[in-house]
Amino acid sequence: MVDIATRVWNHKWKIDPIVRSLIDTDFYKLLMCQSVFRNKRDTQVSFSLINRTKSVRLAELIDEGELREQLDHIRSLSLSRGESTWLRGNMFYGKRSMFRSDFMEWFENLRLPPYHLEKRDGQYELTFEGAWPEVMLWEIPALAVLMELRGRAVLNDMGRFELQVLYARAMTKLWEKVEGLRAIDNLRIADFGTRRRHSFLWQDWCVQAMTEGLGQSFVGTSNCLIAKNRDLEAIGTNAHELPMVYAALAEDDAALARAPYDVLADWHEEHDGNLRIILPDTYGTQGFLDKAPDWLAGWTGIRIDSGDPAKAAEAAIAWWTARGEDPRNKLVIFSDGLDVENIAALHAQFSGRVRVSFGWGTNLTNDFRGLVPDGGLDAFSLVCKAVSAEGRPTVKLSDNPEKAMGPETEIQRYKRVFGVGEQERIEVVV
Amino acid sequence: MVDIATRVWNHKWKIDPIVRSLIDTDFYKLLMCQSVFRNKRDTQVSFSLINRTKSVRLAELIDEGELREQLDHIRSLSLSRGESTWLRGNMFYGKRSMFRSDFMEWFENLRLPPYHLEKRDGQYELTFEGAWPEVMLWEIPALAVLMELRGRAVLNDMGRFELQVLYARAMTKLWEKVEGLRAIDNLRIADFGTRRRHSFLWQDWCVQAMTEGLGQSFVGTSNCLIAKNRDLEAIGTNAHELPMVYAALAEDDAALARAPYDVLADWHEEHDGNLRIILPDTYGTQGFLDKAPDWLAGWTGIRIDSGDPAKAAEAAIAWWTARGEDPRNKLVIFSDGLDVENIAALHAQFSGRVRVSFGWGTNLTNDFRGLVPDGGLDAFSLVCKAVSAEGRPTVKLSDNPEKAMGPETEIQRYKRVFGVGEQERIEVVV
Predict the structure, then answer these.
(1) What is the ipTM of this complex?
(2) Rounded to an integer, what distance in angstroms lies between the CA atom of residue B96 and that of residue B219?
(3) CA B47, CA B388: separation in Å to the nearest integer?
(4) pLDDT tens-digit map of A348-360
(5) Which of A7, A9, A165 should be substituted to probe chain B, the one whose Cβ sees the most B Cβ atoms within 10 Å?
(6) Looking at residue B12, what is its pLDDT?
(7) Which phi and psi (to 5°) does residue B197 adopt?
(8) pLDDT below 50 — which residues of chain A?
(9) How far, in Å, CA of A330 to CA of A354, rounded?
(10) Cα A215 from Cα A421, distance rounded (Å)
(11) What region holds the Nicotinate/nicotinamide phosphoribosyltransferase domain (chains A, B) (predicted)?
(12) Residue B95 phi, psi dihedral angles, 5° rounding
């Protein structure tokens, strides 16, 4: 086992790479990438880093040279033979050959496209432009690099044993969470913490601790590299970037209103079973459900990623019931702002009424709160999003106006088209 | 750095030796051994293991085969070339060639003598018989083996990450002690925790954490192997076994009364400076000081190892003052039952009045209290003592009747000879 504290302390390498592999990314990025490669291969998009926690002045904490070194290192990566074999041959969601040969051939030859980096107002402007299937693969490694370099800036000044104790405390903290989760009967929970993890080694440790501590209740990780190395299920379905880009490409309001369903129609053709999971909140959950075509009610489940999760789950249950579906057969995946307490509460409220599952992110892989002074290692709200497609801005509304993004005039247009009224504001921590 | 939890978890070795070297022992054993080699080389002694914590039923916890394997392994050890070079060439207490050539030649050829092992009433009877300089070297490794095997019996059933978290918690606990000690100005403290350590790797970790956390306040370790490996001062002077054996050899009451001073007269010939440390409590501190020859008042200091430490230090200060010595030049070393709280209190009471130093043992290297159920890893009071010399029983009174040992009739005789009356009972934890 890697002694994380010693590894952190030992800065002998010219570069200690933060991202070691193109599959050190979320499984759903690869699923979506294959879908985009099939359906929108030539769509030109722009992704951009957005730090929603302005108080964390990244450009003052992270050396630009080091950042470029890490990003350049990622551009040097290509799929290894073993990784390719695993993607081609492994069973994902009960299915072999999840990734088609044409996609794999393209992926095997892929190098990530160039990035554009500038400092502005104490923050980094980091953007990626080009063909959608290439650019989209920057999201997770870019976030992981920024999160980890910010952490290293704090860890750099610590002594070897101070570091040992820091990680000792973090381990203790995580284990106490594991012990809390153990008390929940029939829990199903996965690691969704790649993007905002403290570090790769730490995520790897957390995943292994969950495996030992939770046994069958721990159903897998979204991180492909860790899933491969640790013989775990790779978990994930799809994300907001699909409807956001489809919506941006819509020629008029009618096409815009259809866009979120067009995405899922494409997905419906490619996937079945537990991969048919609706992510309804991009332009407001209630409106999305109200206007959804009937075939969507036949999908396996829903993922709840913003707003009040209990409210959204109740809305989904009411919707399924109204459409003649039995909610008890449906899967509800909670994936927003989770920690032991609300996992337990949501489980208590919905277990038995639906099949409940949790995708646990930042508070699993990056909870160093209270372990160094001034919150120097606290997770913060960093995202890397599609901001335009074919020159048109993207928009996200979600069920929490604090998470909305896009130009104000476009936000207003989307709200009108999707019938989104007043929304409850919920503080975004991570 | 060794990942202790992983090492503990991984039981691939046929034998994972607990004692890896003949110098994995306390420095004072080697100093005393040289003295005994010079003055009482042929004295036949018997050492015996005594578990003062009867509730810990060692013979039920520890497999006899494993115990024999560890003890046999110790008998296979001999001084390595590097260890010999270090003992011969290193500066100890400011002096080179602390160990004379004739002693080193003898030590280089030494293998530890046979042991005798039996089970009785849920305990192990473990005895060593033979020439004093050989037998005495069993004390520390025998204790370390029993302590660690008892720990392993508990750790064996734990998972890999459960172990990681156990050690994470122990590290956090120790670091909090380090932070507590850091607040004490002009502290001088050494590791005296070899004999009752949780394990070798853990002692090594604790020593390194003290080095980083306390800087100049951490003055060294009693463990020779760790001192050598970590480039630290080896610390220690002498122990009760010298007066106990000298006393047992005394032909009559008058010789008995002289014995504790005869020991120090021999020591006086060999050592000076900070090695001239009185250990006055073997047959009662007050009586020892009252009857001490004047030349002893000229010694550098005193070590307080039983009874109420503040009372003993006050007695020493009064004694020095009465003998015309300035206590402010004298060293008082506290070494019994220490933890952060009483270290701070003793330092506050005596700093400035005398030179204060601490030899911190069990609560440094073996404080796992509260970390596993039922106190399964709590330290307990195990000793390995000279019980007879030339067929005569040894006796120890100390300043706490709970620590007294020897046949009752002999205890009464010693009390009479040394003028020891009622003593305050203090619970012996470790």
Answers:
(1) 0.77
(2) 18
(3) 7
(4) 999 999 999 999 9
(5) A165
(6) 53
(7) -65, 155
(8) none
(9) 6
(10) 43
(11) 188-421
(12) -125, 135
Nearest to B70 by CA among B125, B4, B14, B130: B14
How many A/B residue pairs have CB atoms within 8 Å? Answer: 65
Nearest to A161 among B5, B160, B209 (CB): B209
Nearest to A3 among B1, B162, B209 (CB): B1
Chain A residues with at least one Cβ partner in B under 8 Å: 1-3, 5-6, 159-162, 164-165, 167-169, 171-172, 175, 205, 208-209, 212-213
Q: What is the pLDDT of residues B230-261, one digit of tens each?
A: 999 999 999 999 999 999 999 999 999 999 99
- Tokens 């390719």 belong to A84
The answer to which of A36-50, A63-77, B8-22, B373-387 has the lowest mean pLDDT is B8-22
Residue among B4, B158, B163, B165 with most chain A CBs within 10 A, to mutate:
B165
Q: What is the mean pLDDT of chain B?
A: 95
Q: Do B161 and A212 touch (CB under 8 A)?
A: yes
Tokens 């200091």 label which residue? B301
Task: With beta carbons under 8 A apart, name residues in chain B contacting A205.
Answer: 164
Interface test with A, best of B7, B171, B204, B372 (most A CBs within 10 A): B171
A164 contacts in chain B (CB < 8 Å): 1, 171, 205, 209
Encoding tokens for residue A276? Answer: 């048919």
DSSP assignment, residue A114?
Answer: P
> Cβ–Cβ of B171/A168 closer than 8 Å?
yes
Assigned token pair, A72: 């350049």
C-alpha triplet B325, B329, B330: angle, nearest 5°: 80
